[in-house]
Amino acid sequence: MSQRPPKPDDLIVDPLTPAPVDGVVVIKDPPEAAMTLTADAAEISAIRMLDAADRARKQR
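-> structure tokens emitted (60 positions)
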């Protein structure tokens, strides 16, 4: 039986909240360094990023 590696202390469990601002996508809530997200948080963040990118294009 194999053991799972421990979860990092900086594991992000909530999805990011990107927003379209003046034709670009802004994400205010991630840390400045690399991020470690759960699979669910990454999936929802990706969907939100695509939506924000579409709305940012429409602002141009």
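The helical segments are 39-59.
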